[in-house]
Structures are given as structure tokens and as C-alpha cells.
């Protein structure tokens, strides 16, 4: 059984910062990639950022320069530092492992 747990969401004012955390546990032979997705109300889930076991990272164009993904895939932990937050960043943020395992999500709300 695989567990993926996100934390760190909350309410923040525009221009503020939040740091999300994700930890995976259970029977996973090897983690190749850990990704952050988000889903806003009425919209499709979208990829925000990802990090591979080799340390390579990628970002959605909408967050590049503002968000930073980091962590240790081998240790099954990943973080998402979100800076200069905008109201359009409001969404439920999900951690995904190897494209297969999902957490329950953490709500991020950017509002004044």
C-alpha cells in the first residue's frame, strides 16, 4: 500500500509565499519522478512542477520563476516553494508519484 501525504496549504495574500511538502511511504520499488499538480474549480488538473530521481526539474510556464521544486526523490520527499503568489494560483495542489499514486491534496487560496 502506498501513501502520499501533502501538507502546507493555506490562505495567503497576493504576493505572499507558501511551502508545500509531500512525503511518500509504502511499497514503491523505485520512484523515478515526483510531480506537483493543481486543480482549480471548474478546471482540469494541470502539471505545475516535477523533479526526477536525477534531480532534473521542469515547470509549467505559468509558475516558472516563481515556484521552486526541491527534495530528495530517493528519500521520498518533495517540496514546492511558491513565491509571488497570485489569485490564479488558487487551487487544490496534489503530489503525484511516478504518474501512478496521488495524495489527497492540499488547498491553496490566494486572496486579499
Defining key terms:
7-stranded mixed β-sheet; 11 strands; mainly beta; 112 residues
Question: Can you describe what's shown?
Answer:
The chain is an all-beta fold and 112 residues long. It has no helices and 11 strands. Strands 2, 4, 5, 6, 9, 10 and 11 form a 7-stranded mixed β-sheet that branches. The chain is globular, with a radius of gyration of 13 Å.
How would you sum up this structure in a few lines?
The chain has 112 residues and is mainly beta.
Return the average pLDDT rounded to an integer. 96
DSSP summary, beta strand count = 11
CA gyration radius, whole angstroms: 13 Å
Order of helices and strands: EEEEEEEEEEE
Structural class: mainly beta
Major β-sheet profile: 7 strands, mixed
Number of helices: 0
Shape: globular
Helical proportion, percent range: under 10%
Distance between the termini: 40 Å
The residue ranges in which pLDDT falls below 50 over 5 or more consecutive positions are none
Secondary structure elements and pairings:
Elements: E1 2-7, E2 10-12, E3 18-26, E4 33-39, E5 46-52, E6 57-59, E7 67-72, E8 77-82, E9 91-97, E10 101-102, E11 106-110
Parallel strand pairs: 2-11
Antiparallel strand pairs: 1-3, 3-8, 4-5, 4-9, 5-6, 7-8, 9-10, 9-11
